[in-house]
Design a protein that fits this description.
Layout: H1 5-13, E1 21-24, E2 43-46, E3 50-53, E4 76-82, H2 85-93, E5 99-103, E6 106-108, E7 113-114, H3 129-135, E8 139-142, E9 154-155, E10 170-172, E11 176-181, E12 184-190, H4 196-202, E13 207-208
Parallel strand pairs: 1-2, 1-5, 5-8, 6-9, 8-10, 12-13
Antiparallel strand pairs: 2-3, 3-4, 6-7, 10-11, 11-12
Protein backbone atom coordinates (compact mmCIF):
# COMPACT_ATOMS: atom_id res chain seq x y z
CA UNK A 1 0.00 0.00 0.00
CA UNK A 2 1.32 3.45 -0.93
CA UNK A 3 2.33 5.70 1.96
CA UNK A 4 0.32 8.69 3.10
CA UNK A 5 1.99 12.10 3.34
CA UNK A 6 2.36 11.63 7.09
CA UNK A 7 4.02 8.26 6.58
CA UNK A 8 6.47 9.78 4.10
CA UNK A 9 7.39 12.32 6.78
CA UNK A 10 7.64 9.53 9.37
CA UNK A 11 10.11 7.62 7.18
CA UNK A 12 12.20 10.75 6.54
CA UNK A 13 12.36 11.36 10.29
CA UNK A 14 14.38 8.13 10.55
CA UNK A 15 17.18 9.95 8.69
CA UNK A 16 17.56 12.51 11.49
CA UNK A 17 20.63 12.36 13.71
CA UNK A 18 21.29 13.70 17.20
CA UNK A 19 22.30 17.39 17.39
CA UNK A 20 21.57 18.06 13.72
CA UNK A 21 20.21 21.36 12.46
CA UNK A 22 17.50 20.62 9.89
CA UNK A 23 15.62 22.85 7.46
CA UNK A 24 12.11 21.78 6.47
CA UNK A 25 10.61 23.08 3.23
CA UNK A 26 6.90 23.66 2.71
CA UNK A 27 4.41 20.85 2.13
CA UNK A 28 5.17 17.28 3.23
CA UNK A 29 8.55 18.23 4.79
CA UNK A 30 6.86 20.31 7.51
CA UNK A 31 5.29 17.11 8.86
CA UNK A 32 8.71 15.68 9.74
CA UNK A 33 8.76 17.78 12.93
CA UNK A 34 5.96 15.58 14.31
CA UNK A 35 8.04 12.37 14.15
CA UNK A 36 11.39 13.01 15.87
CA UNK A 37 12.75 9.61 16.99
CA UNK A 38 13.09 9.06 20.72
CA UNK A 39 16.49 9.67 22.22
CA UNK A 40 17.73 12.37 19.85
CA UNK A 41 17.60 16.16 19.87
CA UNK A 42 17.15 18.01 16.58
CA UNK A 43 16.91 21.74 15.94
CA UNK A 44 14.50 22.58 13.12
CA UNK A 45 15.29 25.78 11.25
CA UNK A 46 12.70 27.70 9.24
CA UNK A 47 13.98 30.09 6.59
CA UNK A 48 11.62 32.88 7.67
CA UNK A 49 13.69 33.20 10.87
CA UNK A 50 12.98 30.52 13.44
CA UNK A 51 15.30 28.05 15.16
CA UNK A 52 13.89 25.44 17.51
CA UNK A 53 10.62 24.79 15.71
CA UNK A 54 8.38 22.22 17.39
CA UNK A 55 5.44 20.15 16.15
CA UNK A 56 2.24 21.68 14.86
CA UNK A 57 0.10 23.19 17.66
CA UNK A 58 -2.98 21.49 19.06
CA UNK A 59 -6.14 22.99 17.59
CA UNK A 60 -7.22 25.98 19.65
CA UNK A 61 -3.70 26.77 20.91
CA UNK A 62 -2.34 28.33 17.71
CA UNK A 63 -0.39 31.60 17.86
CA UNK A 64 -0.79 33.53 14.58
CA UNK A 65 2.61 35.19 15.14
CA UNK A 66 4.45 31.86 15.08
CA UNK A 67 4.57 30.51 11.53
CA UNK A 68 6.88 28.46 9.33
CA UNK A 69 8.02 29.25 5.79
CA UNK A 70 4.73 27.91 4.43
CA UNK A 71 2.74 30.30 6.66
CA UNK A 72 1.45 27.46 8.83
CA UNK A 73 1.20 28.04 12.56
CA UNK A 74 3.87 26.15 14.51
CA UNK A 75 5.22 25.84 18.03
CA UNK A 76 8.61 26.86 19.41
CA UNK A 77 10.51 24.60 21.77
CA UNK A 78 12.08 25.84 25.00
CA UNK A 79 15.27 27.69 24.09
CA UNK A 80 14.10 28.42 20.55
CA UNK A 81 14.92 31.75 18.94
CA UNK A 82 13.39 34.12 16.40
CA UNK A 83 15.43 36.38 14.12
CA UNK A 84 15.38 38.16 10.77
CA UNK A 85 15.56 36.35 7.44
CA UNK A 86 19.05 37.75 6.73
CA UNK A 87 20.39 35.85 9.74
CA UNK A 88 18.43 32.78 8.69
CA UNK A 89 19.97 32.75 5.21
CA UNK A 90 23.42 33.37 6.67
CA UNK A 91 22.96 30.06 8.51
CA UNK A 92 21.91 28.34 5.28
CA UNK A 93 24.60 29.86 3.06
CA UNK A 94 27.22 29.23 5.74
CA UNK A 95 26.35 25.50 5.61
CA UNK A 96 25.35 25.32 9.26
CA UNK A 97 22.37 23.09 8.42
CA UNK A 98 23.12 19.34 8.28
CA UNK A 99 19.95 18.28 6.45
CA UNK A 100 17.46 19.97 4.15
CA UNK A 101 14.11 18.34 3.38
CA UNK A 102 12.27 19.68 0.34
CA UNK A 103 9.21 18.89 -1.70
CA UNK A 104 9.49 18.58 -5.49
CA UNK A 105 7.44 18.40 -8.65
CA UNK A 106 10.22 16.58 -10.49
CA UNK A 107 13.60 15.02 -9.70
CA UNK A 108 16.07 13.83 -12.37
CA UNK A 109 18.35 10.83 -12.04
CA UNK A 110 21.42 13.09 -11.87
CA UNK A 111 20.03 14.90 -8.80
CA UNK A 112 18.44 17.92 -10.51
CA UNK A 113 15.31 19.21 -8.78
CA UNK A 114 12.36 21.26 -10.04
CA UNK A 115 10.09 22.47 -7.26
CA UNK A 116 9.15 26.09 -7.82
CA UNK A 117 7.36 26.77 -11.10
CA UNK A 118 4.88 25.24 -13.53
CA UNK A 119 4.87 27.14 -16.85
CA UNK A 120 1.73 29.18 -17.35
CA UNK A 121 0.93 29.41 -13.63
CA UNK A 122 1.48 32.55 -11.59
CA UNK A 123 4.13 32.26 -8.89
CA UNK A 124 5.77 34.80 -6.60
CA UNK A 125 9.27 33.49 -7.26
CA UNK A 126 11.70 30.75 -6.35
CA UNK A 127 12.04 31.97 -2.78
CA UNK A 128 14.54 30.43 -0.38
CA UNK A 129 14.72 27.11 -2.22
CA UNK A 130 17.45 28.55 -4.46
CA UNK A 131 19.71 29.15 -1.44
CA UNK A 132 18.87 25.82 0.12
CA UNK A 133 19.76 23.72 -2.93
CA UNK A 134 22.90 25.76 -3.61
CA UNK A 135 24.22 25.53 -0.05
CA UNK A 136 23.08 22.19 1.38
CA UNK A 137 25.16 19.04 0.98
CA UNK A 138 22.47 16.66 2.24
CA UNK A 139 19.09 17.10 0.54
CA UNK A 140 16.22 14.65 0.93
CA UNK A 141 13.15 15.12 -1.24
CA UNK A 142 9.67 14.22 -0.01
CA UNK A 143 7.25 13.73 -2.89
CA UNK A 144 4.64 11.61 -4.60
CA UNK A 145 6.15 9.13 -7.06
CA UNK A 146 3.72 10.07 -9.85
CA UNK A 147 1.54 13.07 -10.70
CA UNK A 148 -2.26 13.17 -10.79
CA UNK A 149 -2.20 11.76 -14.33
CA UNK A 150 -0.14 8.79 -13.18
CA UNK A 151 3.02 10.03 -14.91
CA UNK A 152 6.40 9.55 -13.25
CA UNK A 153 7.98 12.45 -11.37
CA UNK A 154 11.34 10.63 -11.18
CA UNK A 155 12.75 11.35 -14.60
CA UNK A 156 15.79 11.01 -16.82
CA UNK A 157 15.70 14.82 -17.18
CA UNK A 158 13.44 17.42 -15.56
CA UNK A 159 10.99 19.10 -17.90
CA UNK A 160 10.10 21.95 -15.53
CA UNK A 161 12.34 24.95 -14.70
CA UNK A 162 15.12 23.82 -12.38
CA UNK A 163 15.62 24.92 -8.81
CA UNK A 164 18.99 23.23 -8.43
CA UNK A 165 21.42 21.05 -10.37
CA UNK A 166 22.85 17.73 -9.17
CA UNK A 167 21.99 18.41 -5.53
CA UNK A 168 19.50 15.77 -4.37
CA UNK A 169 20.95 12.84 -2.40
CA UNK A 170 17.88 10.82 -1.42
CA UNK A 171 14.15 10.68 -2.21
CA UNK A 172 11.28 9.31 -0.14
CA UNK A 173 8.04 8.86 -2.08
CA UNK A 174 4.73 7.19 -1.38
CA UNK A 175 6.17 4.07 -3.05
CA UNK A 176 9.87 3.88 -2.21
CA UNK A 177 13.12 5.19 -0.74
CA UNK A 178 15.70 5.91 -3.43
CA UNK A 179 19.27 7.19 -3.41
CA UNK A 180 20.87 9.11 -6.27
CA UNK A 181 24.34 7.80 -7.00
CA UNK A 182 26.40 7.83 -10.20
CA UNK A 183 23.60 9.68 -12.02
CA UNK A 184 20.96 6.98 -11.56
CA UNK A 185 18.25 6.11 -9.03
CA UNK A 186 19.10 3.26 -6.64
CA UNK A 187 16.14 1.55 -4.99
CA UNK A 188 16.76 1.12 -1.24
CA UNK A 189 13.35 0.33 0.23
CA UNK A 190 9.78 -0.18 -0.91
CA UNK A 191 6.56 0.85 0.81
CA UNK A 192 4.76 -1.99 2.62
CA UNK A 193 2.83 -4.06 0.11
CA UNK A 194 4.32 -2.28 -2.92
CA UNK A 195 6.21 -4.49 -5.35
CA UNK A 196 9.47 -3.75 -7.12
CA UNK A 197 7.62 -4.07 -10.44
CA UNK A 198 5.18 -1.33 -9.42
CA UNK A 199 8.08 0.97 -8.56
CA UNK A 200 9.84 0.21 -11.86
CA UNK A 201 6.65 1.00 -13.77
CA UNK A 202 6.26 4.32 -11.94
CA UNK A 203 9.89 5.42 -12.50
CA UNK A 204 10.87 6.94 -15.85
CA UNK A 205 14.53 7.43 -14.95
CA UNK A 206 17.12 4.65 -14.82
CA UNK A 207 16.47 2.53 -11.73
CA UNK A 208 19.15 0.24 -10.24
CA UNK A 209 17.80 -2.70 -8.25
CA UNK A 210 20.45 -4.60 -6.32
CA UNK A 211 19.30 -7.82 -4.65
CA UNK A 212 16.24 -8.16 -2.46
CA UNK A 213 14.63 -4.80 -1.65
CA UNK A 214 13.32 -4.64 1.93
CA UNK A 215 10.05 -3.05 2.97
CA UNK A 216 10.20 0.23 4.91
CA UNK A 217 9.77 0.08 8.67
CA UNK A 218 7.58 2.85 10.00
Amino acid sequence: MALTKNQIAQRIAQELRDKWYVNLGIGIPTLVANYIPEGIEVEFQSENGLLGMGPFPIEGTEDADLINAGKQTVTVLDGGSIFDSATSFAMIRGQHVQLTVLGAMEVAQNGDIANWKIPGKMVKGMGGAMDLVASAENIIVAMMHTNKRGESKLLKECSLPLTGVGCVTKIVTNLAVLEIKNNVFHLLERAPGVTVEEIKKATEGTLVIDGQIPEMRL
